[in-house]
Amino acid sequence: MKMEENLISLEDLTPEVGEQLIKLARYAIRRSLGLPGKQIQTSPILERKGMAFVTLEKNDIYKSLRGCIGYVEAIASLKDIVMRAAESAAFSDPRFPPVSKEEVDDLIIEVTVLTKPVKINCERSELPKQIKIGVDGLIVQKGITFSGLLLPQVPVEYNWDAETFLAETCIKASLEPDCWLDDSVVIKRFSGRIFKEKSPNGEVEQVNLNNFINN
């Protein structure tokens, strides 16, 4: 079976499956810290391959970022990908110290399941018109050295337009903000299904980014 044929579809991700993904992420972090936790019963659909990011936020008034790591290649089942990403976001994000036992139950967990990234082919000057804020995430790549990714929710959170989103993704790749105009730079887009706790260990909701646009 080809990898694409075994790739999970966003349409397969029901609210119940989303809740399972959040619980898997929290279980993986607690297990790594040696904290008690019971195995999560999951849908067989999560044994299909998938790509995902796990984002951790502090439960403060600013909902400050505490870690964010993910995978854009379907190298394992979505279940395993989410658990690996959760552990990496908690303990291997170079921007932050490792999550401690004392703070783990005060973190809000968000899981974004991704579609396969696809290269955007158009005239460079037309790129901003091809990008849908609240739908598309972006990847900027130059050679094998430079790569940056921003999730679909990022431009919504910061109220960016498409051109700013492109520029910020270039910066994330350690490139100049206008590098997207260079034909040697590869621009890819993907979409995602977002599930997030309303509070630590709390109710899980599917996030609809369109609800936040122009509000």
Strand and helix layout:
Layout: H1 15-32, E1 51-58, E2 65-71, H2 78-91, E3 107-114, E4 118-119, H3 127-130, E5 137-142, E6 146-150, H4 153-158, H5 162-172, E7 186-190, E8 192-197, E9 204-207
Antiparallel strand pairs: 1-2, 1-3, 3-8, 4-7, 5-6, 5-7, 8-9
Helix pairs in contact: 1-2
Describe the structure in brief.
With 215 residues, the chain is α+β, with helices and mostly antiparallel strands. It is built from 5 helices and 9 strands.
Characterization of this structure:
The chain is α+β, with helices and mostly antiparallel strands and 215 residues long. 25% of the residues lie in helices and 24% in strands. It has five helices and nine strands, in the order αββαββαββααβββ. The protein has helices spanning 15-32, 78-91, 127-130, 153-158, 162-172; strands at 51-58, 65-71, 107-114, 118-119, 137-142, 146-150, 186-190, 192-197, 204-207. A five-stranded antiparallel beta sheet has the order 2-1-3-8-9, with helices on one face. The longest helix has 18 residues, at 15-32. 35% of the residues are buried.
